[in-house]
Amino acid sequence: MAGKKTVGAAALDITALFEQELQARNEDLRRQAAVTMFVKLRPSNKVSVEEFLSGLKQHKDVWSVVSTMGILDFASTLTGGPKESEPKAAKAAKGGKRTRLSEAQKNSLKGLIVNVLAGVKDGLSRAEIASHSNEDLLGNIGVNRDDLADKLRQPLGELVRENKIHTVGEKRLMKYFAGPDAKKK
Predict the structure, then answer these.
(1) Phi first, then psi: what are they for 37, rounded to 5°?
(2) Taking the complete model, does pTM exceed 0.70, yes or no?
(3) Which of 35, 70, 95 is the C-terminal boundary of a domain?
(4) Residues 124 and 57 reside in one and the same domain
(5) In this structure, are 81 and 132 located in the same domain?
(6) 57 and 134: one domain?
(7) 113 partner at 20 to 30 Å CA-CA among 28, 76, 120, 183?
(8) Which residues pair with 175 in a beta bridge?
(9) Contact 133/116 with Cβ under 8 angstroms?
């Protein structure tokens, strides 16, 4: 009997997770469609600003995107301005979602950092630590190599605060070294 309950509970969890993911994808797709529609919208001067905005407010998906835009992005999109000033929502829809590290991922990255630095006497920059990381380990952790250098910022800072590694230099010239800072003792 107990075996059937756990199978049923697992099926419910899978169903709930699937529904959540499906809803998130649906919302992303609706937002992307709203951004695309708004970028293609080219009103004439015969329409007043009030009429234009009230028309946008009638479409809740479009309004949710437009209401988060900055005024310059809004104006640039309407005038067909340069693509560099594309709305943040459009960039997010194209580039995918930005994700945060889970505690498990962060702890795994901390271990990876300490292991990489332990084998290097001269210290490494954040980008060098990312390039020295094993591809298989990154796959297990769930972090893409392209995102790794950015994802290392928080774990590196925490390791420095915990006095497990130390730094030399500032900003772009900063190097990370294994172990606590001997000068601070």
Answers:
(1) -65, -45
(2) no
(3) 95
(4) no
(5) no
(6) no
(7) 183
(8) 168
(9) yes
